[in-house]
Amino acid sequence: MIVKVADLSEVVRRARYRENVGPLNDLLRQVPRGTEHRFDEDLDIDAELYRHGPDVYFQGRILGTVHAACGRCLDEFRWSLERPFRFLIVKQAGGMEPEDDTGIDHYAGDEIDLSPLVREQALLALDDTALCSEECKGLCAGCGANLNREECSCRRRPDR
Fold first, then answer.
1. Where are the domains of the chain?
2. Cβ neighbour number for residue 72 with a 10 Å cutoff
3. How far apart are CA 90 and CA 68, in angstroms?
4. CB atoms within 10 A of CB 112
5. Alpha-carbon distance 88 to 106, whole Å?
6. N or C: which end of the chain has fewer CB within 10 A?
7. Which residues are within 8 A (CB) of 19 and not within 5 positions of it... i.e. 6 or more apart?
């Protein structure tokens, strides 16, 4: 979502929109182990924006569904993503390289593209330790059986 800075004021403006997950899924396919997660549908963004002088405040939450592989049994499952975010977006001083401050972003020109900020937050919300359920028994270290669906064959052997 691109906003024109001049269209913002000190009055809080509510922004509800959907963020395309295509670029996020493309990025996840390029990252090692990135195929363990994917976004099923576009993300719902519920946010507030306002401007104080040249500074823009952008806060809200991201809602979506993530398709993932369980960290214990490797079965695929879906989980609900909900991540709050808050940014202060300040005007970049002419010719100056912006400092890397957490929660502070910079803009130049008359418009701000909010999509990179939202996408970054969605990626940070991914959990490599997500489980299909708290009761997940995982895989047998000996034979690889999914203990949620079957007994392992190595338990049946008298020598173990």
1. 2-132
2. 18
3. 36
4. 24
5. 8
6. C
7. 1, 42, 43, 45, 62, 115, 118, 119, 122
Rounded to two decimals, the pTM is 0.79
Q: Report how far residue 20's alpha carbon sits from residue 149's, in angstroms, rounded to the nearest whole number.
A: 36
Residue 37 makes CB contacts below 8 A (sequence gap 6+) with: 28, 66, 67, 68, 69, 126
pLDDT band at 97 (very low <50, low <70, confident <90, very high): low
Name residue, tokens 């991914």.
126
Helix (H) or strand (E) holding 124: helix 115-124
Percent of the chain having pLDDT more than 90? 59
pLDDT classification of 96: cutoffs 50, 70, 90: low
Taking the C-alpha atoms of residue 31 and residue 65, their distance in angstroms, rounded to an integer, is: 20
